[in-house]
Q: What sequence folds into this?
């Protein structure tokens, strides 16, 4: 399960004021310059309710709009600030002019919180809520604004005690990242459940979910509902929930616990100090690198440098590729050592047989095996359909008995081929050194073919060759060059105890190696058509 924030991860975090509601009328951005008198009041309230030099995207968007419309911004002194709280999604700043003894309270926040502060009647509440829904369904993030005069020198302890008057609404547009719909589609195919968590209005969450292709069955769980749920209820409800709206950071931990209680492997994104417990509790905590706090980064397993949801999905794809390549490398190591051990032990059972593998030959083999495992397999591209398969069972062994058995089958097949070539060469009456040269050649060629067929579980060896795995090309070229030199160069023949029997006698080595390649490719094809 991948739990992601909306703002900045799924969207671009480039907030712009898209619409303003003031004086019982809705104005869109294109109409702002022609309606300055009508929208000036709500913009003034919004800018005074925002912090100076803010890094918050919405507050920056308000400041940018004021600058764009070249509206004068009165320089006021801050008297007191009432911050956002869990109980009330609104903040108030009491400001005072240097030339006036009177103060003003400016408030902005979630529409439902502002409606509550303005003591709306049921009819007003219904009317304005419908308007908020209308804006939210277009994917806008909606805030409401209110203000009032403060005549008393003693300020109230709570925001609820101010006699606020409704100023209007502001709708922000935050475009989704272009690559996110494709990433969500990949997640759906890969069996990864994506959960979007946002502090926005539920209708906004639904609109964004529809734009990115997030499956949500028209169900949204809000922070208020979450607060009143027992752990058992949430554990059951979360199985079919993909959208969480009006969530505060502390509630992320509750979501994590419910998912883990259902046996899910959970990744969670976060950026704030309050996200740290959830990031720590998740199997994989992902902190935002651009907007994240140091506390969030310390608590997380990964840091997302570009704050992009698609990068998380790319990391999953890369993880699957690395996992596959490690398994293939281990399978190859096990397979290739079967013929090495077998050929070393063969003369031990019959003293009349010439020794086939000496220390120098084994060193030669290892000079091929080690680079192949550490470079060729590592740089091999991902398998076809890597994101179309379900997640791996976490209880499954990394290298289980089935893989061990198949590796041994490959190894014994290569051993059998070399042994057949070995005895055929003896039957032809070659000297011990010539037999050793022929059999060793079949082992080297068979080893290269084993590498070719082992590099991919879904593509044939021709595709592997054409993919231009540079490491494979270099290692294979060096291996064949050294093999030709050891067989043909008199000095190297002596070092390797070889004798050149004539090129026609190496035909059995090539036929044997090609036979092994053909059999392994047929097994691969059968395994693709009839997976275990």
A:
């Amino acid at each position: 399960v991948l739990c992601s924030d909306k703002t900045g991860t799924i969207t671009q975090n480039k907030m712009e004021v898209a619409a303003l509601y003031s004086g019982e009328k809705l104005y869109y951005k294109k109409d702002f310059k022609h309606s300055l008198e009508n929208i000036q009041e709500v913009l003034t309230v919004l800018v005074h309710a925002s912090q100076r030099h803010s890094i918050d995207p919405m507050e920056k968007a308000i400041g940018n709009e004021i600058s764009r419309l070249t509206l004068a911004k009165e320089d006021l002194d801050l008297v007191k600030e009432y911050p956002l709280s869990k109980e009330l999604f609104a903040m108030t700043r009491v400001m005072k002019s240097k030339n006036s003894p009177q103060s003003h309270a400016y408030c902005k926040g979630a529409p439902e919180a502002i409606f509550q502060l303005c003591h709306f009647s049921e009819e007003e509440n219904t009317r304005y809520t419908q308007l908020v829904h209308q804006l939210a369904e277009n994917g806008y993030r909606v805030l409401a604004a209110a203000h009032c005069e403060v005549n008393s020198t003693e300020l109230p302890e709570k925001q609820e005690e101010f006699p606020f008057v409704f100023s209007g609404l502001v709708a922000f547009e935050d475009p989704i990242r272009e690559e996110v719909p494709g990433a969500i589609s990949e997640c759906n195919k890969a069996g990864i459940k994506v959960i979007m968590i946002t502090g926005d209005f539920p209708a906004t969450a639904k609109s964004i979910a529809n734009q990115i292709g997030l499956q949500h069955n028209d169900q949204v769980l809000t922070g208020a509902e979450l607060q009143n749920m027992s752990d058992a209820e949430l554990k059951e409800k979360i199985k079919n929930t993909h959208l969480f709206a009006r969530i505060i950071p502390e509630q992320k931990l509750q979501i994590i616990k419910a998912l883990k209680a259902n046996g899910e492997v959970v990744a969670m994104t976060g950026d704030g100090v309050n996200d740290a417990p959830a990031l720590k509790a998740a199997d994989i905590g992902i902190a935002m690198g651009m907007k994240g706090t140091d506390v969030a980064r310390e608590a997380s397993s990964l840091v997302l440098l570009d704050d992009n949801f698609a990068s998380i999905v790319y990391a999953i794809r890369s993880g699957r590729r690395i996992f596959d390549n490690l398994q293939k490398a281990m399978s190859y190591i096990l397979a290739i050592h079967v013929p090495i051990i077998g050929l070393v032990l063969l003369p031990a059972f019959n003293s009349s047989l010439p020794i086939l593998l000496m220390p120098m030959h084994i060193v030669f083999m290892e000079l091929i095996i080690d680079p192949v495992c550490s470079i060729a397999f590592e740089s091999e591209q991902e398998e076809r359909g890597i994101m179309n398969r379900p997640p791996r069972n976490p209880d499954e062994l990394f290298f289980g008995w089935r893989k061990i058995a198949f590796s041994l089958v490959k190894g014994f097949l290569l051993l059998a081929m070399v042994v057949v070539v070995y005895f055929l060469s003896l039957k032809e009456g070659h000297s011990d050194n010539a037999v050793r040269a022929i059999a060793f050649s079949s082992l080297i060629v068979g080893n290269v073919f084993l590498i070719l067929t082992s590099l991919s579980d879904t593509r044939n060896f021709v595709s592997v060759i054409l993919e231009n795995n540079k490491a494979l090309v270099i290692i294979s070229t060096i291996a064949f060059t050294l093999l030709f030199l050891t067989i043909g160069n008199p000095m190297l023949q002596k070092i390797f105890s070889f004798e050149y029997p004539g090129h026609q006698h190496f035909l059995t080595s090539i036929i044997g190696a090609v036979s092994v390649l053909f059999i392994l490719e047929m097994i691969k094809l059968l395994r693709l058509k009839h997976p275990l």
About this structure: The longest strand covers residues 141-150. The chain has three domains: 11-173, 193-312, 320-529. The mean pLDDT is 89.
